[in-house]
Structures are given as C-alpha cells and as structure tokens.
Amino acid sequence: MIKTPKRRSGIFAPRVAIRPQRPEYLRWLAIGLLTALALALAWGMYEAGHQFTGSDKNEPGHELDRLSRLNNRLQQDNDELRMKVAGLEHQLQMDTAAREDITKHVKALEDENIRLKEDVAFFQNLGSVTGKTEQRVSISHLKLARGQLPGEYRYSLLLVQGGQRSKDFQGSLEFVVNFRQNGEKMVTPLASESPSNTFDVNFKFYQRVERSFRLPPDALVESMQVKVFEKGVTQARLTQTVNLSL
Fold first, then answer.
1. Which of 11, 78, 140, 196 could form a disulfide with 158 if both were Cys (CB 3.0 to 4.6 A apart)?
2. Are 78 and 153 within one domain?
3. Is the distance from CB of 246 to CB of 200 less than 8 angstroms?
C-alpha cells in the first residue's frame, strides 16, 4: 500500500515569501533619481564653497590678474616714492649748500666789519698825530693765519703814507716765511711774478694787501717777515715781522 505524504501544517510547515513582481524600469528609474539627487547635492556644496571663499569658476586666472594689477600699482607707487625721495634729497642738499654759503657770507661780513673798525681807529689816530710833516710809510694790521685748505696760509696788511703826502709812494714788498719741516728750521721767500720775488705797490694815502700762499702740509709756519722797499732804493725802508695767529 502506498502512503501518501501528508502536508505539514502548523509550526512545522515551511515558510513561503510572497513578493509582488515589480517592473525592471522602475528599479533603474529609482537608481537614476538617487544618482541625480547625489550629483545635485554635490554641486550645491561646491557652489556654496566657492561663494564662501569668494572665488569663481576661473579662480586661477582671476587671482593671477588681480595679483598682476596689484604688482603694477605697487611698482607705480614705489616709483613715485623714489621720485619724491630724490626730490627731497636734492632740496636738502640745496638747503645745506645755501646755509653754508650764508654762514660763510656772514663770517666774511663780520671780518670786514672788524677790519673797517680797525681802519677807522687807525686813521683817527693817524690824523690826530702832530709834529713831523715829512713823508713816511708805515705798516698796520699785519696778520698771518691758516687758510681753509691743508698747507694754505693767508696774510694781510695795510700800508699807510703819512705826512704831507706830496706824491704817490712807489715801491715793492718782499715776504719771507719762517717754518719748520722734519724738525728743521727753514726760510723761504714768497714767490711772485717778479724775478726778484717782490710785489709792486703804488699808492698815495694807503693800500691794503691780502694774499695767500701754499706750503707742504707737513710744514709748520711760525712767522712771516715783510720788507718795504722804495723804488730806486736797495735798502729796505721798513721791516716788520708777525707770528702765526693760533
């Protein structure tokens, strides 16, 4: 006798899943929608990041143009500042030179004023002298000082003719400088255009003499002697010595 298998029921019965059948295109449509949504979300985040950082689609080119314009502007500003600085330096040099010229001019005026006062005092004393009326020549305000350059010296004197002064005084001056060099005392006449190293003078009342001379920088001038010769006379009519002013 053949037994017919019995159907199991209850908890021992096998489970059966019932799934509704879906079309294939719906699955692909859902995948496409999810992909599009993900792309849209990514694009939105990208645009938000660009807007937040202030850049645009052409960020490298835009930044390069901006830096180039900034560099050009900085170069123009630098050139303008250099021109202004050069102008200020030139103006400062001009102001300094003008100030030095004014200082020298004021010093020269002060020296001239002192010299004029000395001349006035000298002539006042000369005019008040009474007694002999013969013609006579004297040296006044003989000075010897250092110059501005190394080895340069300046000297000045005033020749005055007193008495009746019936004629002009014609003669010459001879200068001799006493100095030390390498520990030895030395003497040298001052050179002039004349072969005899004398300086011609011709005046009736007075004549001022101002000159300069140069010696080696290592020479130390101590004094200078001046002799006054009358034309046609070999013997000095007057001799006077002055030390170097410190």
1. 140
2. no
3. no
